[in-house]
Design goal:
Length: 308
């Protein structure tokens, strides 16, 4: 019988020895994390305070801002603590918790953007029925379903991993990666691979398809409307298209880094690309929506700068 040592912790191998640069990296990452929290919190408060923004699109936006803070919190505190660690060890429960937090947040991001795309589709294609189809109660239900859907999907996938026996414990990333953790198992069944593909499909492919269909229908309507309506559609849809495009690019970086041999890519570049989504997206979202959408921009000016 083979004698296997029980693995009780994982080692995040991508940190390496950065010497005295850890103080610089720590300061930069802490400042970035605090900036993400402040930028998103300001917009959450503005939407909450300004009753004119209590509309379906802005309520969905508020949920998106909450998720940006949530997703960032799943990465930055652990990353900051690991900067001063010598061993870079993470216990299995904490690793599984971080995976649950990160991947649920990623799913919420995609699903929320799909809901926002549907909201824009109804607003532009069926303006007379918009208030009936997208009322406040229905939006609250959509947000609740988004979180339940995302959480249940990953818990289903995680249930196949927690039962595995691991023969290795080094994860070549700065956070606990679902696919790399699975590769450390002594043996992986076909069900584990199917659950991995299932999670990718329901998290990325399905919401992205809904977004694509919504915007294709919007484009078809805009081609036969006035210039003024086209401009309005472009103004409200551009931030969402940028967000979806950035998410799609981030997913490609994550997929390539986790599943393909990219040893020829410099280690620092690999680290940056692996956390690209959690670095850029939480800051792109508030700035794109905070400065691009006229109503939010005006509310920010009124509540932040015009008060006497």
């Amino acid at each position: 019988m083979q004698n296997l040592t029980e693995i009780v912790y994982f080692v995040l191998g991508a940190y390496g020895d950065i010497g005295h640069l850890k103080y610089l990296y720590f300061s930069i990452m802490l400042l970035w994390y605090l900036s993400i929290c402040v930028a998103n919190t300001v917009l959450i408060v503005v939407i909450y305070v300004d009753r004119r923004l209590h509309e379906p699109m802005y309520i969905l936006l508020c949920n998106l801002f909450v998720n940006e803070i949530s997703g960032s919190t799943s990465l930055y505190p652990l990353m900051l603590s690991q900067m001063f660690s010598v061993t870079h060890e993470v216990t299995l429960p904490w690793c599984f918790l971080q995976m649950c937090y990160i991947y649920t947040s990623a799913s919420v991001e995609f699903c929320n953007l799909a809901a926002m795309a549907y909201d824009r589709y109804v607003s532009i294609c069926y303006p007379l029925h918009y208030n009936v189809i997208m009322n406040t109660g229905r939006v609250a239900l959509i947000i609740l379903l988004i979180w339940i859907y995302s959480f249940v999907n990953f818990i289903f996938s995680l249930s196949f991993i927690v039962r595995l026996k691991f023969c290795g414990n080094v994860i070549d990333k700065v956070f606990c990666d679902h696919h790399l953790v699975m590769k450390l198992a002594c043996s992986v069944s076909i069900l584990n691979n199917i659950s991995d593909l299932h999670f990718a499909f329901v998290t990325v492919v399905l919401p992205f398809s809904l977004v694509s269909v919504s915007y294709m229908k919007i484009l078809a309507v805009c081609l036969n409307t006035s210039i003024e309506n086209k401009q309005k559609a472009i103004t409200t849809c551009t931030p969402q298209i940028v967000s979806v495009s950035n998410l799609f690019a981030g997913c490609i970086f994550h997929f390539v880094d986790s599943r393909l041999d990219v040893a020829y890519v410099p280690a620092k570049v690999r680290v940056i690309l692996s956390v690209y989504l959690l670095i850029c997206q939480p800051m792109i979202t508030p700035f794109m929506y905070g400065f691009k959408l006229p109503k939010i921009r005006q509310s920010c000016k009124r509540y932040l700068f015009d008060r006497k």
